[in-house]
Amino acid sequence: MNEDIRRRDRSLIRGLIEALPEGVLVIDRNDRIIGANAAAHAILPGLQPEGSLARSLRSPDVLDSVDRVRSSARAERVFWAEKVPVERLFEVSIAPLGSDEFESALILSLHDLSEARRLERMRVDFVANASHELRTPLASLLGFVETLQGPARDDEAARSKFLTIMREQAQRMSRLVDDLLSLSRIEQHLHVRPNTPVDLVGILRHIADTLSPMAYDKNVTLKIEAPPSVIVAGDRDELLRVAENLIENAIKYGAADAMTANKDVDIVIRVNGPQAHLSVRDYGPGIAPEHLPRLTERFYRVDAGQSRAKGGTGLGLAIVKHIVARHGGRMNIESKLGEGACFSVILPPFEN
Question: What's the CA gap between 45 and 34, in Å, rounded?
Answer without folding.
Answer: 16
